[in-house]
Specification:
The chain is mostly helical. It is built from 4 helices and no strands. The protein has helices at about 1-30, 40-60, 70-95, 105-145. The longest helix is centred in the C-terminal third of the chain and has 41 residues, at about 105-145. It is elongated and about 65 Å long.
Length: about 150
């Protein structure tokens, strides 16, 4: 059961970050280069970044999971591995996942720091939502038994 919680925490945190980064940064860059993409490609990219967070939001609203602060270490493993792979791919093989992540200048370091902060914020958002759901559930239960 705890493994399911950890995987949900990782999924939620990653999707919050992916969705924010995609919509706040990458779409803006893509729309600036609109000649490179047609509208169907941009819509497809939008759908692939909206559907997962929407489904996780629905799941989170229906389950009784609460984020555990001690699990934050587990949610930091995937972005850490991704960062290491991204740095090696960029510096050794000259392959960038995103044009902004060259890892050859300060912009990449700033972007990396922003991603780490977003992961912390994504986990904390899940923690706050879980706490809010618990308080709401306790109030409803107290109201039910006070009748």
């Amino acid at each position: 059961n705890r493994i399911g919680y950890v995987f949900f925490e990782i999924s939620w945190t990653a999707e919050v970050v992916i969705t924010i980064v995609f919509w706040a940064i990458l779409v803006v860059v893509d729309f600036e280069k609109a000649g490179d993409y047609d509208i169907e490609v941009l819509l497809f990219m939008g759908e692939t970044h909206l559907i997962p967070i929407t489904l996780l939001g629905i799941e989170f609203s229906q389950n009784r999971m609460r984020f555990t602060k001690s699990h934050v270490i587990f949610t930091s493993i995937p972005p850490s591995l991704y960062t290491i792979v991204s740095i090696v791919a960029s510096l050794v093989f000259n392959i960038q996942a995103y044009p902004i992540l060259t890892w050859k200048d300060y912009k990449s370091a700033i972007f990396g720091f922003i991603i780490v902060a977003l992961f912390a914020g994504g986990f904390y958002s899940g923690f706050l939502i879980g706490e809010w759901k618990q308080r709401r559930r306790e109030r409803r239960t107290a109201r039910y038994y006070s009748l």
